[in-house]
């Protein structure tokens, strides 16, 4: 693809370098995704697909306002939906408006990006869910948006599990789209004060070459669902000084135009999930356990002590059927 697109703009040596770099990046990405494929977390209502792009972080941030969520016994799957989720971090501008921060997509990995943030500025986190319209899927409310596990490496360890903060949800609503009426757009926004984490990684300018990682978990309530859906995303950030002028790094996209970095699509990180709506299994009720209990056929099997019954053998289910028939006959006589 690189050779086809830029063959008329650069010479052969630079072209070979770009092709080798892209090939090496793709190979390392596939290898890392295959290594982590068997370690992905699975939730009752939110599971990941086998496609490498459909990835779920290994550890979600536990909710602080909800009861402990346990994996329920799921029955038949009613329907499945593909969710496209946009994550944006907005910063307060001198005009008083919150503008989405620039995201560095130079790594080229799908569903990844690095937020370029300013130190000491008020921020908001905006999450937008997009999916095909369906009769079973209706978002009712956002129960909680939790952020935590602040760290300076991509892996999650127990040392980063204490810095958990529940954000204040200021708006949650469905958005009407004039471009696509067959899809549902559900957006909610929360205030994020990074100083409340009391983390040195968030309260300083990020050193050169270092990145800050944080895990975000949203608990959303759906109609006719007893447990909320959990959407979890690992975000990568770099903090600059308050007055720094930030511009996105140049990439191959800039060879074909200078307007790409100004489009709103580049100022967000994308996540792709699969939402499964399943019926609850009623195997836990005493009646269902009794009906599913294995019945011993004593007309054939030996029961200890039956020799004392002098040859008497138990009857089968015909006894119950005859009893029901007798009750119906008495009811008819009574009428």
TrEMBL record:
Q: Which InterPro entries does the record match to this protein?
A: Kinesin-like
Q: Which residues form the Kinesin-like domain?
A: 97-244
Source organism per UniProt: Xenotaenia resolanae
**Pfam families hit by this protein:** DUF3694
Specify the protein name: Kinesin-like protein kif1b
